[in-house]
Automatic annotation (TrEMBL):
<protein>
    <submittedName>
        <fullName>Uncharacterized protein</fullName>
    </submittedName>
</protein>
Length: 144
């Protein structure tokens, strides 16, 4: 994929050079200039899409901690993961460290007195009318 992307970039550069030559000439053909400009935009978009696809393919090879660098929020530059990968990785480590030391965690409170009773709240009532419906399966939304 990287080689395909390099070929796209070279095609884009060639088109830019032709466009530059056309703009400097005395005979300006506006229709061809517009078409060439559109072609350059399409090639640029295709190159960006390939960068995102390449990131997605690498995502599974990375530890879960660093998979966030594969998102589109990290800008695509001449390098697949941005210009300053070391800085980005350092920021990710710092954020993960803050997450790990936060004072509130749902996992800490789960099952320690909070919602630890597995019974449904309506089961706690005596002689409830709910009892007859407890095992009833609804057909709602199933197209019956």
């Amino acid at each position: 994929m990287a080689n395909t992307q390099k070929a796209l970039v070279k095609a884009c550069i060639t088109n830019i050079e032709v466009l530059d030559t056309m703009l400097k000439s005395k005979n300006i053909d506006e229709e061809n200039i517009r078409k060439l400009s559109d072609a350059i935009a399409f090639l640029g978009h295709a190159s960006f899409d390939l960068s995102i696809k390449r990131r997605e393919m690498l995502k599974g090879s990375l530890s879960k901690e660093f998979q966030v660098i594969c998102t589109a929020q990290i800008p695509v530059t001449s390098f697949l993961f941005g210009d300053d990968l070391n800085k980005t990785l350092k920021e990710i480590r710092e954020v993960n460290k803050i997450k790990a030391t936060s004072t509130f965690s749902q996992e800490q409170n789960y099952g320690h007195g909070y919602n630890s009773n597995k019974r449904h709240f309506l089961d706690k009532r005596q002689n409830s009318s709910y009892e007859k419906y407890r095992n009833y399966r609804s057909n709602r939304g199933k197209g019956y």
